[in-house]
Amino acid sequence: MTKFNAAQAAKLLDIRDVSVSLNARGKPAPSVLEGISLAVGKGEIVGVVGESGCGKSVLSLSVLGLLPGALRLSGGEIEYAGVHRLDRMGQDELRRYRGKEAAMIFQDPMSSLNPGLTIGAQLTEMIRLHLGYGRKEASEWAGQLLHKVGLPRPASLLREYPHRLSGGMRQRVMIAMAMSCNPGLLIADEPTTALDVTIQAQILEMMRGIREENGTSIMLISHDLGVIADMSDRIAVMYAGQIVEEGDARDIFDRPAHPYTIGLLNAIPSPAKKREKLFAIPGTVPALEERGRGCRFAPRCPHAEERCRAEAPPLVRVRHEHRARCFLAEEKGATAHEPIRSGAVG
Ligand SMILES: Nc1ncnc2c1ncn2[C@@H]1O[C@H](COP(=O)(O)OP(=O)(O)OP(=O)(O)O)[C@@H](O)[C@H]1O
After folding, report:
1. What is the dihedral of CA 159, 162, 168, 169, to 10 degrees?
2. For residue 197, with 0-12 CB atoms within 10 Å meaning exposed, 13-18 middle and 19 or more buried, which class applies?
3. Within a domain: 161
4. Cα 288 to Cα 251: distance, rounded to the nearest angstrom
5. Is the CB of 71 under 6 A from ligand 1?
6. What are phi and psi of 84, to 5 degrees?
């Protein structure tokens, strides 16, 4: 894990008590995200982890002011660099903020690359728009960016169309595009999920290099705690639209306090576990209408008691900067739970 002193870092992104709801005209709408508070320091890598449907992508789209029409920010505030309030920005200001201050890389580069334009045309358009460079300067910078992300023969690559590149190369192009204006914040939503393991490791290593070289803050989103593990300084675990545990990456790994986190940790495949059945947390993430009034994880939790089904646990501090949303963690501290391997399913 990387050395990063969160206490010394100034906040670059500050998400305060943010809720996102379905846009149901006039009617009370269920919350997709509820009371999310999360900060990302300058140069810090924060991992956001949770199964599919927990709200990770909705959170990243909120940070970019890119929520789809069906959803709206219904509470809280998002502040960038201590001055910009996302919830108060107009469309023009938002456009300038995206790309220049905060950039995103997605799981599938083809969804963001235009198949009808060369790599060079797409990269230089972005550079000219945000940095105001002339054609020649922009083209030179584009070549340098491709070189920086480890792509060979940048000059000829600039003339290629996206479909001629491998998945790993396309992801590198996406990252070059995201880095073209040297943004302070990079949001990477499942950046390596579609890639094979060796390429995955190379891309993650490259992102770490970007942080070292440019001091870029990174919000790294994945359903796989294994991917987040080596990269993150801090980790937020999301479940059914809430943060259920948050803390220093070391604490999350060495002393997980929430049974959901323990389940995710047990589900990481490793060479040592090769002969064992791969663990999966039984059950699925509840849909919006299935959430009860108690703890949202209670139906899948091996430790759930009557109280967990009746009351929603608050997010409480278990130690220092380590927080968890669990009654048992609250009562006993972060050593409340034994790993839940015994409930393993194939
Ligand atoms: N465009 C939308 N309209 C309505 N509801 C949405 C929309 N996008 C997301 N949601 C709701 O938000 C929930 C969280 O979705 P989100 O995509 O953020 O999850 P995720 O954790 O990123 O999962 P995945 O890894 O599959 O992308 C969904 O289960 C769904 O209920």
Report:
1. 10
2. exposed
3. no
4. 30
5. yes
6. -85, 125
Domain span at residue 53 reads 6-101+183-343
Do the domain assignments include residue 149? no
Cβ of 286 less than 6 Å from ligand 1: no
286 vs 270 pLDDT, higher one? 286
Please tell me the distance from the alpha carbon of residue 51 to that of residue 206, in angstroms, as a whole number.
25
ipTM: 0.93
Q: Decide if 333 is inside a domain.
A: yes
- pTM over 0.80? The answer is yes
Pairing of strands 242-248, 316-319: unpaired
Round to whole Å and give the CA distance between 235 and 252. 7
- State how far the Cα of 293 lies from the Cα of 311, in Å rounded to an integer: 6
Cα separations in angstroms, 261 against 58, 86, 127, 282: 20, 30, 41, 14
What CATH number corresponds to the domain at position 86? Answer: 3.40.50.300
Distance 33 CA to ligand 1 centre (A): 10
Q: What is the pLDDT of residues 179-189, one digit of tens each?
A: 888 899 999 99
What are the helix and strand counts (H, E) for the chain?
12, 12
Q: What is the amino acid identity at position 26?
A: G
Beta-strand runs (E) in the chain: 11-22, 31-41, 45-49, 71-80, 84-85, 102-105, 185-189, 217-222, 234-239, 242-248, 316-319, 322-324
Q: How many domains does the chain have?
A: 1
Please, are residues 229 and 261 in contact by the beta-carbon 8 Å criterion? no
Task: State in Å: Cα 61 to ligand 1 middle.
Answer: 10
Query: Which tens digit of pLDDT belongs to each residue from 234-256?
Result: 999 999 999 999 999 999 999 99
Tell me, yes or no, whether 175 lies in a domain.
no
Distance CA 125, CA 111 (A): 17
